[in-house]
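Appendix B. Chain record.
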Amino acid sequence: MEDQINFTGPLIPELEQILPEAFAARIRRPGIVNAMHHEGFNKAVKAIGREKLFVAGITTEICVTSPVLQMLEEGYEVQVSADASASFSQVGNDLALQRMHKAGAAIVTVPQIVSELALDWTSANGKKLVSIIEYS
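Structure tokens predicted for this chain:
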């Protein structure tokens, strides 16, 4: 049995509580920094058949930057949610976001993504999605 590096630690337990089926079906990447280098993850991205991707991760400069740069190279249109991941330092976070933006990624926020998906707050989908950005 190979030793597996678990640098970033486990996912937050709330994800399992909120989305148990999705949590169980998640793709595990033991020690691979660039998720796109993991065969299962790469195949899953390609299998959805989309040209536009929203990306967030645990750490901006590690979990997000490498796969985003590869996704851009492969021709995807990528939007990175700046407020859905963080870094070990503010400078690390800022430089990672700048690097991805310079490479062609759109740097956005969760409310921007949600409103883009909703299209119309009065629609059935919009009514479901508005609760994500209601901060009160």
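Further analysis of this model is presented in Appendix C.
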